[in-house]
Amino acid sequence: MSLGSTVRALPTLLRVGFAEGVAYRAELVVWILSTTMPFIMLALWSAVARDGPVGRFGQTELTAYFLATFVVRQFTGSWISWQINFEIRHGTLSARLLRPVHPAIAYAAESLSIVPIRALAALPVIVLALALGVAGSFPRDPLAWLQWLVAISGAWTLGFLSSFAIGCLAFRIESSLKVMDVWLVLFWVCSGYLVPIELFPQTARTLLDWLPFRYQIGLPVELLTSAHDLAQGWLLIARQWAWVLAFAVLSAALWRAGTRRYAAYGG
Fold first, then answer.
1. Among the four 135, 225, 231, 258, which has the fewest Cβ within 10 Å?
2. Alpha-carbon distance values, 172 to 132, 168, 176 (Å)
3. Distance spanning both ends of the chain, measured CA to CA
4. What are the respective helix, strand and coil percentages of the chain, to the nearest 5?
């Protein structure tokens, strides 16, 4: 498998992934509906902040934060662990292993190909943010937007690699989806998805700074709502990409060990 053949295959992989996403519209709609929790949390936190700001969060700041959370979630979600589990259990992974492109590249292309469709779901929320007048929370410095692009790329990559690593556990345990369920619970609580990181007690905030969950969604949301200056933003991005590297190494190790075991059983 050469780099050239992989690059040549990418457009086809993206087209196939996009076609499958369009073909299975019902599943995509269900996935989008499952990411509407930020709207519920916005209603709850707005009720709490009705009598006064919670930390730095007044009504406008809460609206900006949770609308940004929904938008970021559309760009960073990954379902690869479920797909890997399915293909291992049903033996269809064997066909992927025979192709000239590494399965991880194919999985990544399939995930990326759906991003434009999810962006359509995010567009009305962006329009709503503009209509509600909360766009003033968005960055105005071009360097801040560059930071956000780096952070959103890191968030997608970290989400993909963590899901991929958990999916690879299915080579050794009956189903790694239980592990993914635990991961998702931690993600919801620790990432800033349900509660802004700033509202946690200081001890908890310090811990969350060094866990991967914040960097999957909280950091891009914080940068999109101008919660950090440029220096602090780059520091957090460095931590995010350190986690990306860590999960890349872990995913590669789990995949190599798992495929050797899969082949030994005649997969």
1. 231
2. 50, 8, 9
3. 20
4. 80, 0, 20
